Amino acid sequence: MTEVADQFTEERSGEVTRIAHWIDGQRVEGDSGRTGPVYNPALGLQTGEVDFASVEDVERAVQAAKGAFESWRTISLSRRTELFFRIRELFHDHAEDIAKILTAEHGKVLSDAKGEVARGLEVIEYCCGIPELLKGGFSEQASTGIDVYSIRQPLGVVAGITPFNFPAMVPMWMWAPAIACGNAFVLKPSEKDPSASVFTAELLKDAGLPDGVFNVVHGDKVAVDAILEHPGISAVSFVGSTPIARYVYETGTANGKRVQALGGAKNHMIVLPDADIDMAADAAVSAGYGSAGERCMAVSLLVAVGHAADDLVGAIQERLPKVKVGDGMHPDSEMGPLVTREHRDKVASYIDRGRDEGATVVADGRETAPEGDGFWLGVSLLDNVKPEMDVYKDEIFGPVLGITRVETYDEAVELVNENPYGNGVAIFTRDGGVARQFQFDVKAGMVGVNVPIPVPVAYYSFGGWKSSLFGDLHIYGPEGIQFYTRGKVVTSRWPDPATSKVDLGFPQTR
Ligand code: NAD
């Protein structure tokens, strides 16, 4: 069972592994003839070659899911719960194996990868309470002799399309509630780090999930379009960049599907003059450079208000040389490489772009990058970033933190509210009244008060506003359950001579 993990936990042999699809409970090699390379970003070496699905491969996965759905939806809630407890145990026991796969293909440091698995596990644990989550309402004697009740039923075959930056957790946000609700699932993970999804499939099979309920097809736009156009798929969850999220939402809904598509972000962290500067600097460094800035909830822009700015820049500058950049498998490393060479080069180009646009380069990560073939970049800090600059507007998605200086709270809030993204936002202050006003004023889906990365716990839902989310429902938590089910209301009466008569009038409730 642990085949996939073994490739990462055992000595690396230097061989390139073929990564195949997972359909109907087994590994299936694609026959499209199209594949993509998978790298170990810390070594700069290709370690895998992943099959890219054809339209026919997607069709096979959907047919397997369709077949499995018919019996999966009949499984009792108590048996589904029992299975979810087993899934929880297996993922818990294999958390380190999963984390090693993440580090090997994504590059994030092992401690961070373990954190990713732990946050994903919380969603699985939430799903262990599925009988409670699917409970409907019941109104006895809504009319004389008539009861009314609501039930929630699964949609059928649903699909998830996921990004490279959380190769285990974001799929868990989707497959766990989808399957717990009684759906069958087709996952199209990122082609950059696909192995965690195949390992997930193996673990689910080991836990006893029937074949076909969870399937994985790898690939690119061909696979995504086949999913979006397939009439057998009822709903699509997407997490990725904003242009693709918009495309997935528009194409999926045009094809009659329910879609939730989470997009990119430019998360602002506002630091007011009364903030605890050390706490704010610790938070900025952790949230700006953790996972090399490749988090949709990373802080990418600090908005320093009034005299907070000089102190904050000084405090961050002090901390930067201490950030240990290195191979994520080494226990000392705090920040790993970027996911691909192309992405590293693109992120690094923003340092010159910022300087050319008039920002002050306080730290240049190219000068502190470790040696070697890995996709390295050290931590970079740009001060005096202005809203009209590309380094302000673009989602850089790397370890490049910008600082914008403003004079007032109102200016800071206006910056956040005018930004096209609205994923996460944070405010650092000691003033409870201002924090409370901020929570009221700000246009973003997830707000932190002295908390830089306010990813909601599993029993709330995750989602942004504006261009950070297309669709009506946030992901996981109560809204996730709503997304993967549809409601039905039953109005029922049992034969009773006392209440039976012919009445051609419109049904009345009294
Ligand atoms: P991406 O948009 O490039 O890819 C996401 C998925 O879409 C992948 O499975 C990919 O194969 C597929 N895809 C890529 N190009 C496509 C195309 N032209 N047509 C159809 N499908 C396509 O995103 P990424 O680079 O993997 O991930 C980083 C992005 O994801 C960032 O923008 C980040 O903010 C965002 N993200 C958002 C959240 C959130 O919750 N809002 C969470 C994680 C990541």
Describe what is shown at a glance.
The chain is of the alpha/beta class.
Low-confidence stretches: none
Q: Give the number of helices.
A: 17
Trace the largest sheet across and list its strands: 15-16-17-14-13-19-20
| Broad shape | globular
Q: Over all CA atoms, what is the radius of gyration?
A: 25 Å
| Secondary structure tally: strands | 23
Overall pLDDT metric? 96
The major β-sheet equals: 7 strands, mixed
> What is bound: which ligands?
nicotinamide-adenine-dinucleotide
Structural class: alpha/beta
Strand content: 15-25%
Measured as a percent range, the helix fraction is: 25-40%
Q: What is the CA–CA distance across the termini?
A: 61 Å
Molecular structure report:
The chain has 510 residues and is of the alpha/beta class. It has helices at 3-9, 55-72, 77-93, 95-106, 110-127, 130-133, 169-180, 195-207, 221-229, 242-254, 277-289, 308-319, 341-357, 390-393, 409-418, 432-441, 477-483, and strands spanning 17-19, 21-23, 26-28, 35-40, 45-51, 138-143, 146-154, 157-161, 184-188, 214-216, 233-239, 258-262, 267-271, 299-305, 360-363, 380-383, 400-406, 421-422, 424-428, 446-449, 465-466, 469-470, 485-493. Strands 15-16-17-14-13-19-20 form a seven-stranded mixed sheet, sandwiched between helices. The protein has a six-stranded mixed sheet with strand order 10-9-8-11-12-22, with helices on both faces. Strands 1-5-4 form a three-stranded mixed sheet, with helices on one face. Bound molecules: nicotinamide-adenine-dinucleotide. Nicotinamide-adenine-dinucleotide binds at residues 161-166, 170, 188, 190-191, 220-221, 224, 239-241, 244, 262-265, 296, 395, 397, 423, 464, 468.
